[in-house]
Amino acid sequence: MKRISIKQEACIGCGLCQVYCTVEHSKSKDPVKAYLKEQPKPVSRVRVETNKPNSISIRCQQCKDTPCINACLTGAMTLDKQTGQVTHDPEKCIGCWTCVMVCPYGAVKPDSTGKIIAKCDLCPDRETPACVDNCPNEALVCEEVEEQ
Question: Do residues 10 and 137 lie in contact, with contact meaning Cβ atoms separated by under 8 Å?
Answer without folding.
Answer: yes
